[in-house]
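Async update (no meeting this week)

Hi team, since we skipped the sync, here's where things stand on the single-chain job. The sequence we agreed to prioritize is pasted below, unchanged from the tracker. I ran it this morning and attached the output directly underneath so nobody has to dig for it. Comments welcome in thread, and please keep replies under the output.
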Amino acid sequence: MALSTHWDDVYGRSAVTDVSWFQRDPACSLKMVNVAGLEPSDAIVDVGGGASVLVDRLLDAGHRDVTVLDLAAEALAVTRSRLGSRAGDVQWIIGDLLAWQPRRRYQLWHDRAVFHFLTDADDRDRYRAVLRQALAPGGHVVIGTFAADGPTACSGLPTARYDPSELAEQFPDLRLIRATREEHHTPNGRIQPFTWLLLINDAPPTQTDPHR
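Output:
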């Protein structure tokens, strides 16, 4: 089964409030975004944003340049419906993150629970390559994965697990600013430990960079 079909099927058979990763309040994400100190006009991309309410909260906070990318058209349809007229204030991309070719730079890259599905080294390499293309010099990365004692699978797919140092080692070109642990309570009452990092791209822009 193609991954897009897999995730469309997940969202097609379950209410978004019933899936294990649902959060009514994306508190860790928002704290990390606040620490990054963005301006309202700074570009943000939420990769794997799906039906998350993070985009709602970012718009509430006055952010004016938000993009949401996800493989599952069903998930993005839910979010657009929920936002109503505000959906027109967001850029929507339906597609595979690993095949994405960003046409611009972003000051913040947010990923909650995409990277931990990349159990193949080649997929992680491709993720980092796309991230390098998309992240502006001085830009921040907010990333959350299952912690070292977190689940080994989610929605029928295997997952990788990371403690803060292991996750930071996956991004040697970025500098770690903050790490924290979250114990996510799923809708059915289980606890899923997450590792969260805030990283920054200290690399200066190059004269040949067409996106700077």
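Quick observations from my side:
The domain at 3-8+26-200 is CATH 3.40.50.150 (Rossmann fold).
The mean pLDDT is 91.
Reply here if anything looks off.
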